[in-house]
Amino acid sequence: MQPQNPFSQQSPIPGVKHIVAIASGKGGVGKSTVSANLAVALAKTGSKVGLLDCDIYGPSIPRLFGTINQKPAISEAGRIQPIDRYNVRLMSIGYLVDENSAVVWRGPMLFKAIDQFIKDVEWGELDYLLIDLPPGTGDVQLTIAQKVPLSGALTVCTPQNLALIDVKKALDMFMRINVPILGLIENMSYFANPTTGEKIQMFPKGELESFLDRTKIPKLIELPFYTTLAKASEVGIPVCEGTPDSDEAKLFQQLAGILKAKLEK
Ligand SMILES: Nc1ncnc2c1ncn2[C@@H]1O[C@H](COP(=O)(O)OP(=O)(O)OP(=O)(O)O)[C@@H](O)[C@H]1O
Ligand SMILES: [Mg+2]
User: Fold this and answer.
1) Whether residue 37 has its Cβ less than 6 Å from ligand 1
2) φ and ψ at 158, to 5 degrees?
3) To test ligand 1's pocket by mutation, which of 22, 24, 26, 33 has the most ligand atoms within 8 angstroms of CB?
4) Of 4, 69, 123, 199, which is the most exposed, with the fewest CB atoms less than 10 Å away?
């Protein structure tokens, strides 16, 4: 799939085949959890994978990968070396500045940071570079969507209308600048009672289904609520690495297969 964004002054990242943004207008719906596990799942298929954490104000990737105290090496040519973990090349503002200094950044500083992520990080040859976006549709998201030659965007949404309202804004932003929407991941769809298997709806079902029908945006997968996923975030080992045979890891492996097939089309 070729990048199709006519407004951007994009220069492709040399050696990187597909760049996919993981977005949602709403915070806390699971973008970083999905990004981390999808990256590991893709890497386990033998692909070369990078993951760029663009959440400048609240980077999660260092913690999700158990790499919070690591600092990237800088080559003699001044290029930033990604952190290698579980066969995924990682970059995050969390590796570059201390936790409190980025929170005051606005406009030019933000753009500079994103520009550095794209141009000054030695990503090397990659099949997939995933970009974990912050919530919302502000400067960071728009800059990425316009400056980076995205193959497409994945969006993460929980079932209720409160999330859908914000996700619609994110989708609208990508559509306006002609970034293909690869599909939606419904996260925390339900919680399966471990003894009875009964599905408990944690969030009220909203109008997500009718919205998807109307817009023809495919739902790629439904991810239930797994306590193991929440725990894995704290421990810093994504389930796809720690428990690759678990049901939850298998769903991410399935999602990786779906994404690969879509991008190779
Ligand atoms: N399917 C799931 N089952 C259980 N816990 C989950 C699931 N998905 C996400 N979580 C948990 O929900 C919390 C929020 O997830 P995460 O940080 O991935 O969301 P986010 O959309 O990236 O948030 P932000 O908007 O702040 O960047 C985390 O504690 C994570 O472990
Ligand atoms: Mg996040």
Assistant:
1) no
2) -90, 165
3) 33
4) 69
